[in-house]
Write a structure and sequence with these properties.
This protein is an alpha+beta fold. The chain contains 10 helices and 12 strands. The protein binds adenosine-5'-diphosphate and magnesium ion.
Amino acid sequence: MPLSEFELIQQFFSNSDTCRPDVSLGVGDDCALLNVPAGKELVVSIDTLVEGVHFIKGADPEALGHKSLAVNLSDLAAMGAEPAWVTLALTLPSVDENWLAAFCRGFARLAAEHNVQLVGGDTTRGPLNISIQAHGFVDAGSALRRDAAQPGDLIYVTGTLGDAGLALQAPQNNLPLSIQLRLDRPTPRLAEGQALIGLANAAIDISDGLISDLGHICDASGVGAVLQVKDLPCSQAVCDHIQMSNDWSLPLSAGDDYELCVTVAAEKQAEVERLAMDFECGLTKVGYIEAQPGIRCLRADGQDFQQVSAGYEHFITA
Ligand code: ADP
Ligand code: MG
């Protein structure tokens, strides 16, 4: 006998490993009851993963549980927020208990790692679709936003760029596991985002590629940017790929890395670089903001670098 909707929720979603004191009422009633601490702003974001668009049919459910939460937490990271609660709207073609158990394992492990509690959701039948809303806090008025970059700011990125893109395009068995994991189990840069509050002027997470996402900062802030292509931080596997192909599109415009891109006033360079010594993923200066609109990529010799495509866009077809 397949589980009823009620039994399914009971079995898989009622007991969060995390129990936060700011949750008066979690899963089980019509709504959750949640308490935002005094002096904090609520930071809210939602993301949907659709089978066939964001992941392939038959994708590992444990990795999906991780990734669907990670991409949401990455949005909170980009605002410098501390995550607190999530809701989960799941549309499933059928009730497959093994699939659900694996999905919940991946989801719950990442949630517990960041003290995030699942407080509600919705479960329906249909083509596989995972929609997660994440909620977090920042001190009121202190969130990192896209619209506050200033000409002269230095541009930094966390981690390395292009790994997820490489995993997507290369045959899986030729890649180091660490690269495949960057696509399947991205790490939301939460501690880094929070540490950059008060230091960064603007921030965004890189979901659609550096050029595209830095472009959002530029558009929102009414500025432009210069990127020094030789300074882009890349893993050995991506460096090897670039050397073979002479194609820089992985670090410049491939998506799904979920690193942070931030801009920092030049007078805070020493302070931010001192802080970043504690970042396990590293923080690399890749360029600067200028008043002139548009993004210019420069080669090591200072000449313009002829650019590739901008990044992933859902509603544009080539
Ligand atoms: P309603 O009909 O009032 O929307 P539901 O039967 O959809 O109630 O859900 C019952 C309870 O279970 C609610 O508290 C809801 O938030 C929770 N819930 C349902 N699906 C999920 C899910 N996938 N993850 C977490 N909580 C869920
Ligand atoms: Mg419902």
